[in-house]
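User: Predict the structure for this protein chain, please.
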Amino acid sequence: MKHIIRILMLSVFLYGCSTPVSYVDQQYSKTKYEDITRLVEPLKLKVNVVFQRNGEPLPAVDNELRGHVERVLRATGVVVPVSTGTTGELDVTVNNVADLAEAAAKGFGTGLTFGVAKSNVTDFYELKASLRIKEKVIYHNNYKHAIHSSIGLHDEATSAQGMTPSAAFGKVVEDFILNFIQDFQQANPEMPSGA
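Assistant: Here is the predicted structure, written as structure tokens:
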């Protein structure tokens, strides 16, 4: 019985050590919700999303991306995602530029040491959006972002500052959409404003 308890405790310890902890690169987080000017009548846009990894479509992530994009758009008070009766369309593409071989090698090395050796990997993101009204592109822009993740033995203070990879991806999309909406408003000062 003592051996079983020890094995279970070791398994929990090793699992905790091998859980990835992610950190969103703060240099790309320039816009907050308070920086956005809400519209009395938000734009009703059809939202089209595409997630890519190294330039290749990865449809399995499209729904997660759509959920983050639409949540942030609604919260800005500038755009309401709709499927009919639209003012125009918003095309969003997020490309995860990842060195999969390097990530696999680092993960394997950490696994060999049972999580004692910590591995760090950075996922870079290229994000682009284009807003069309009546088939005319009225604004488009490209952005970059990054998530730094570590796997292996973490100290509690460091882990407390991090988040899950899924939460970090949501934050990257939030930063991207907020930056895009603010830049769009600054480039189109004639848009009606004030809520």
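Residues 1-17, 103-116, 156-160 have pLDDT under 50 and may be disordered.
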